Amino acid sequence: MAINRYEKYWLIAVFTMLGAFAAALIVGVMVFGVRLPAPVARIDPRNIANTEFAKLGVRKLGGNRVDVYMVAKMWSFDAGAESGAPGAPPKIHIPAGSTVTFNIASLDVLHGFYIEGHTINIELVPGQVARQTARFNTKGTYKIICDQYCGAGHQVMYGDIVVE
Ligand code: CUA
Fold this sequence. Notes:
- Strand 3 and strand 4 form a beta hairpin.
- The protein has one helix at 5-30; strands spanning 41-42, 57-62, 65-73, 76-78, 91-94, 98-106, 111-115, 121-124, 128-136, 140-145, 158-163.
- The protein starts with a helix and ends with a strand.
- The chain is of the alpha+beta class.
- 16% of the residues lie in helices and 38% in strands.
- Dinuclear copper ion binds at residues 75, 111, 146, 148-150, 154, 157.
C-alpha cells in the first residue's frame, strides 16, 4: 500500500505528538505525583456529632503541623467556639510557618472554600469531606470566601485566617 509522502509526514507528526503527551502524563504521575482529586471520605451531615467533626476548630499536631476542622452551612463557616460566636464569620488563629490541613464538610448545599493568597479553592459537596493542605509562612490576615453561589446569604459567608 502506497502512502502519500505528505500523509506520511503528518502521520509521523501525529504519533510523535501522541508519544510526547503520553510521556508527559507518565512523568507527571511517576515523577511529580500528580493525581486526580479523589473523594476523601463520605459523611452524613445529619450525624455530624458522631464523626471527627464533632469537635470543630484548630488542632495542633506538634511540629509545624496543624489540622483545622470546619463545617459550612447556609450562610456561615463554623470553626468551633474558639474562632468566635456561632453564625459570626470565624477568625482562625494559626502560628506563622504552619502547614495547615483543612478538613471541611458542608451540612446542606454546595459551598466553596477559597483562601486569599494561597493555593486553596475547593468545592464543599454535601455528604463529602473536603481536605486540602497549605503552608502559611507570612503573618497577616487572609480572607476565607465561599465562592460557590449558595443562596440569599452567599455574600456574607466568609471568615479570616489570622497568621501570627
Ligand atoms: Cu456558601 Cu456561597
